[in-house]
Amino acid sequence: MFRHLLYLDDFYLFPYDKSKANETILTKLDILLRMMYNTSDYPVQDILTELGPDCDDLIIRGIVYGIPVNISDYFRKRLTTNGVCCMFNYKRESYAYDEEIRNEDNRFIREKQPIQFEANSILNSIQFVLQSNPEDFTVRDFDIDAFEITVFPQYDYANIQSSHIGHILVDYYSIVEIPIQPEFYDSSERIRQFKPSVRNCYFPDEGQKVLNRSYYSIDECLLQCRSESMIKHCGCVSPPMGAMANLTYCNLNALPCLRQWNAKWHNWNYFAYVNDDNMDDSDLMAARKCPHCLPTCDGVNFRIHLNEMTMRRAYGGIYSHGLLKGLDDTKPLAIIKLFFKQRFAQATEMDIIGDWVVLLNRFGGIMGLMYGFSIISSLEIFYYATGKFFTFYWNNWKLKIKKIWILKIG
Questions:
Q1: Residue 158 to residue 94: CA distance in whole angstroms
Q2: φ, ψ (nearest 5 deg) of residue 167
Q3: Spatial separation of the C-alpha atoms in residues 238 and 354, rounded to whole Å
Q4: Which tens digits make up the pLDDT trace of 5-50?
Q5: Who's near 365: CB < 8 A, 6+ residues apart?
Q6: Hey, CA dihedral for 137, 138, 141, 144, is it positive or negative?
Q7: Which among 203, 231, 228 has a CA at the least distance from the CA of 217?
Q8: Spatial contact of 154 and 92, defined as CB atoms under 8 Å apart
Q9: What is the pLDDT of residues 49-106, one digit of tens each?
Q10: What angle do CA 363, 367, 372 make, to 5 degrees?
Q11: Within 10 A of 370 (CB to CB), how many other CB atoms are there?
Q12: Given CA atoms 205, 209, 212, 218 in this order, what sign does their dihedral have?
């Protein structure tokens, strides 16, 4: 039965993994869950979350600015399209199906104040000890002997969809220092005169209108765009992507359709060139990957830098000092340290530095420098090509009239 439950892994929708969905097993699991929850709308997202490892088993020790902390006060298990993760400093409202779980998640983010990074000293860093249990019964197509860490904004859906901030693999028995460097960017109001497609960004009010929501980011836009495409193709949304309200979630019987959508969305086909003429509008839209989703015109980016070193194994199997004191090394361990890289941050601003007159002057200067030709030269050529000839004929005509009058008077 537990091996059959591993078919739930197909809900995570990795684009190029071979589908292992067996419709007979999916049907049996669907019947079982309908009977168990007495409804066809059983909470797949909550089932997936429950099957994931608990945070206390994965993150066994932590220090925040030199003070030991209780892990359960800082981490909450949540669902993402990459798997079940333990969230730290996460402030997005819960998207759990069960109301009790949803209320508990929301209470957790309301009561727990976010950790503010205070200094760039490693002595004042945030440190956690990770532990893996090799006895966990999990089977994946591509197993990795490492911890997976993803860095993302507090209010975004926790998923790598666009230009992600950081995706880190921490090897077993290693110590990884993660200096973080923020980079602020802003845009002046003067660039509003250009269309978003020209400046390639949205101001907050523009992005909110695009999503019809009070919060906008490019990842949020991509999440909504993909969900709408999924609903159009299968009539429901994969549970890990159900991070918005009023959505119909897919059950086990919809997995084959979700796999078809996944191949279409990523435009993945062994013989795609054969079917190009038969692509409909939805296929073409999927291939363009939501062109209306643009970055924000102001905000902050984070650059991640890694310093990795090997952790020494304990003499006698038990560590005697430091953050690992009292722990044994029979199970794979790792330490991560988070802190700011520098005491200052770079800020940039996008603004208009010249109008069409300045642009005309620059083009003229470039033409004069490269070709010995300028816009003034073109005006002079036009003047000599038209004005001089007109003046020449005008003077000749006046002279001819004058001669006629002289002859008549004479």
A1: 12
A2: -130, 110
A3: 48
A4: 878 888 887 766 666 667 888 888 889 889 998 888 888 888 988 8
A5: 374
A6: negative
A7: 203
A8: yes
A9: 888 889 999 999 998 888 888 998 889 999 888 788 899 988 888 888 888 888 999 9
A10: 155
A11: 8
A12: negative
Token representation of residue 366? 């470039």
SS3 letters for the chain? CHHHHHHHHHHHCCCCCCCCCCHHHHHHHHHHHHHHHCCCCCCHHHHHHHHCCCHHHHEEEEEECCEECCHHHCEEEEEECCEEEEEECCCCCCCCCCHHHHHHHHHHHHHCCCCCCCCCCHHHCEEEEEECCCCCCCCCCCCCCEEEEEECCCCCCCCCCCCCCEEEEEECCEEEEEEEEEEEEEECHHHHHCCHHHHCCECHHHHHHHHCCCCCCHHHHHHHHHHHHHHHHHCCECHHHCCCCCCCECCHHHHHHHHHHHHHHCCCCCCHHHHHHHCCHHHHHHHHCCCCCCCECCEEEEEECCEEEECCCCHHHECCCHHHCCCECCCCEEEEEEEECCCCCEEEEECCCCCHHHHHHHHHHHHHHHHCCCHHHHHHHHHHHHHHHHHHHHHHHHHHHHHHHHHHHC
Two structure tokens written together for 241: 């992507």
Which of 48, 180, 159, 153 has the alpha carbon at shortest distance from 91?
153
Phi-psi region of 169 (alpha: psi -120 to 50; beta: other; left: phi over 0): beta
Answer whether 0.90 is exceeded by the pTM.
no
Instruction: Give the chain's length.
Output: 410
Cβ neighbors of 182 (< 8 A, separation 6 or more) are 300, 301, 302, 303, 340, 345
* CB contact at 8 A, 159 and 219: yes
CA distance 393 to 401: 12
Token pair 């945070």 is found at 55
Helices 218-234 + 281-288 axis angle, to 10: 150
* Separation in Å, CA 24 to CA 21, 29, 140, 252, 347: 9, 9, 21, 11, 57
Residue with tokens 């880190």: 168
Tokens of 109: 């983010």
